[in-house]
Amino acid sequence: MATFDDVLEEAGAFGRCQKRIFALLSVLPLTSAGFFAGIVFQGYTPDHWCRDSAVVDMRRACGWSLEHTRSLTVPLSNTSGRLQPSKCTRFDVDWNTTTLGCDTETLNLTGVPLSACKEGWEFDYEGRRTFVTEPTNILLSQFNLVCSDSWLVDMFQSVIGVGYLVGSLTVGYFSDTYGRKVSIIMTTLLNCMAGISMAVAPSYICILILRAVVGFGAKGSFTSCYVLLTEIVGVEQRRFVGIIYQMFYSISFLIIPLLAYFITDWRWLQAAFCLPSFIFVCYYWFIPESPRWLVSQKKFSKAYEITNAMATENKRNISKNLEALAEDEGDSPSASILDLFRTPNMRKYTLILMFNWFTSEVVYQGLIMRVGITAKNLYIDFFISALLEIPAAFLIVFTIERMGRRLPFASSNFIAGLSCLITAFIPDSMHWAKTVVGSIGRLGVVMAVEMVVFVNTELFPTFVRNLGVSICSTLCDIGSIVAPFVFYRLVNVWQDLPLVVFGVISLMGGALVLLLPETKGVPLPDTIDDVE
Which SUPFAM superfamilies is this protein grouped with (predicted)? Predict the structure, then answer.
């Protein structure tokens, strides 16, 4: 019984046409990482302390240094075991009613009452302007997302996870209804428009709303491209194409520090992330619709036209009639979420995969955000940690056909977990050691993220496979929402506490993976009975 895969083999499973489309679509992820990881530079919180206008006036009159001014304004506080100038409290003194002069050598502030910041904050920008401290056009004040309002920075990263989640739940339906090509163009255009609007948004609320829309568009365009690529190549090439496509997303992280180094204002940096994506709207004239989707929609004439054009470009011919393809849809049972939990093995696989989707995203995002608060040189440290993502794709391709799926999947979690735990207890004085070991952990979790995708597809039976991947992968998006709050709140307790949490949950994920069956060389299950 002929299938579309048979037709595709005749037309060329991975010929010149598919390689051209792959090259075009692989450029799209190069612009995606900025939306996800831009918070490291856009949301960088500079050193800050309470502002006291009277002391600021004296600084100007007496020529005091910034450090001396701070010592007169705020007390020292114990932060992560070290005495540092307080960021959120100040000496409760009205300097306008005192006889403070330029000579402060005999001034003793011991025992002076403390209070919260009353006049805002002073910031040491270090050459960067971020949304954390930027003045708004409406309130003629500042965002000042520090101290009691620091959780609003978490929201900046969390709302993009909300966009990812909504995109996961809706773009698939849109793509199945209107086609892969239309979905790619529409979500890319939406992403561009929302991203540019963010760069000129007048208030923080507008920024958060638009960032959620950016997340929706970014997730939609990324997944629609992924689906189109896997539908136009042969069965044997799908896994390779999928892994390499995701590798380009990792490569895009190398571009971010370069852009951020030269573009120090967060609004212009946001524009730089988005403007190149407008080029992809032109893809409407350069990429075809998925002929596999057209066949599923009974649009055989258009499907034949596209498949024949692919065959011609590949210097091949097709002989099979697309209208004769048997779909045998009547024998396929309808899928239900309950099918994922009804039987013992299905229930076990679903829960283990859900846990791994969730933990992989939390750890991955957490390690990226950690660079923003621990880096000695933000640009170099970010580049190094991003560079170690690149080998992940090659390691996966090299190991899965030699060692199977289960062992590399579990090992990647173990590498991530152990690296996080080791990094947490390396002394801060050994910064390069912490950076390198932490980056190895990032390599491990990237492998885990990429492997959970196709392990998920190989474990579930045909009729519930797409539903199973969709339901399990929503835990990844929930992880995106939760990760910023977990990371930034734990950092306030102990800077390396997030690493301990990441290490523990990664080790748990690896141990659970060992409970899954090996799928290398095993035919894909068609029914739940095959799974059980």
Answer: MFS general substrate transporter
CB atoms inside a 10 Å sphere around CB 205: 10
Q: List own/partner pairs for 387-391 with CB under 8 A and 24 or more apart.
A: 387/254, 387/439, 388/439, 388/440, 388/442, 388/443, 389/250, 389/253, 389/442, 389/443, 389/446, 390/247, 390/250, 390/251, 391/443
Structure tokens at 503: 């290490």
Report the Cα 386 to chain-centroid distance in Å: 12
Q: For residue 153, count other CB atoms closer than 10 A to its CB.
A: 21
Residue 328 has pLDDT above 50, yes or no: no
Q: Enumerate the β-bridge partners of residue 123.
A: 48
Residue 325: pLDDT above 80?
no
Give every CB contact of residue 178 below 8 A, 6+ residues apart in sequence. none
Residues 6+ apart with CB under 8 A from 377: none
- CA dist 285 and 278 (Å) reads 14
Which domains occur in the chain, in start order?
Answer: 1-45+141-330 (1.20.1250.20), 48-98+109-124 (no CATH), 333-531 (1.20.1250.20)
More reliable by pLDDT, 155 or 126: 155
CA 45 to chain centre: 20
Residue 304: predicted pLDDT: 86
> 446 near 389, Cβ under 8 Å?
yes
Helix (H/G/I), strand (E/B), else coil: 26? helix
Tell me the C-alpha distance between 259 and 266, whole Å.
11
Q: Which two tokens stand for residue 386?
A: 């991003």
130 pLDDT band, cuts 50/70/90, is low
Given a contact cutoff of 8 angstroms between Cβ atoms, the answer to whether 114 and 92 are in contact is: yes
Cα separation values, 36 from 29, 157, 159, 429, Å: 11, 8, 11, 30
The tens digit of pLDDT for each residue in 85-100 reads 888 888 888 777 676 6
The closest alpha carbon to 218, from 164, 279, 166, belongs to 164
- The mean predicted confidence, pLDDT, of the chain is 83
Give the tokens for residue 163.
């966009």
- C-alpha–C-alpha distance, residues 401 and 404, integer Å: 6
Using DSSP's 3-state secondary structure scheme, residue 499 falls into: helix
Render the burial of 118-143: b for 16+ CB within 10 Å, e for the rest: eebbbbeeeebbbbbbbebeeeeeeb
Pick from 429, 420, 277: nearest CA to 362: 420
Of the CA atoms within 13 Å of residue 380, those in its CB half-sphere come to 7
Q: Which of 166, 171, 73, 157 lies closest to 116 in space, CA to CA?
A: 73
In the numeric block, which tokens belong to residue 15? 């010929």
